[in-house]
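We store amino acids, tokens; thus:
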Amino acid sequence: MSTDALFTPFNYKNLHLKNRIVMAPMTRAQSDNGVPTQQIADYYGRRAASEVGLILSEGTVINRPASKNMQNIPDFYGTEALAGWKNVIDQVHHNGGKMGPQIWHVGDTRSSDDYPLVSMEKASTMSLEDIQDTINQFAASAKSAKDLGFDCIEIHGAHGYLIDQFLWEVTNTRTDEYGGKTIKERTRFAVEVVKAIRAAVGEDFTIIIRLSQWKQQDYKSRLAANPSEMEDWLLPLKEAGVDIFHCSQRRFWEPEFEGSDLNFAGWAKKVTGQPTITVGSVGLKGDFMSAFAGESSEKSDLTELLRRLERQDFDLVAVGRALLNDYQWVKKVKEGKLEELSGFAAESMGVLY
């Protein structure tokens, strides 16, 4: 089995990658009071040195009340946190890697009863002033990423967090301009976030957005029931300035719509004409949400992934748990040492190495 398709360069705007493999963003929640430590820099630096093409950080939050739901999720604002991120990107670059922070607001997703001590922000109840400041803070964090020397940024618009809560009719019951009965109407908040970020970082800086049909609140949820609705969802985001669509699925091999074997990333590329990232249990048999339940997963081969990549269904491949488990995963695949790849051990979820 040839893995050559994974190891061709990718170039888009300012983003020049040596291969097609992306480290997926995975919450680690080990940044002390929001400040990334040297341990965090070492963790990402090891993956850079082991030939990951692009590293996307765990979710990092903007300067808004209740933007995170765990104390040690990293901030992407403030002097101390940004100094920590400067150390991270310098180490990644020193080790030959490229990296972008994933910028995030969790919205109404409380993970415990005691943190944070302020009310969670909800798509349906935020004031217009709250919304405008949130948009501004997304832009401010993106500008900080560019100023620190990061290679791109990713907006977290998936999995039932704040941006997704505006997109989803279940959580967006607003009757003003940020609500609406159709997905096209409900893209307004996300579109304004993207436009503000584009204005802050300029035309050449690459903006990625991570989107999903499914929500942590409802695995079976779908924002787009057919290709036409997907156009209504994604095209406004493209027009606003999104460069690359990161299409989150629990299992990348599952088709998105009847009558075609294209997955979410395949359809997103077809609909928008933009590069896409596929993700979802790459190299493993079990989906990633099972890891949060403490479940391990057996490895699987890469045949189907490579078939779709060679067919140019998508442009980049995000790998999550496999890279948690083994930071040399990319190097082993490149060198053809596929027999040395292993499954995912659940205990890797809580360890930085």
User: Anything to note?
Assistant: The longest helix spans residues 128-148. Strands lie at 10-12, 15-17, 21-23, 54-61, 99-104, 152-156, 206-212, 244-248, 276-279, 316-319. The radius of gyration is 19 Å. The chain is about 35% helix and 15% strand.
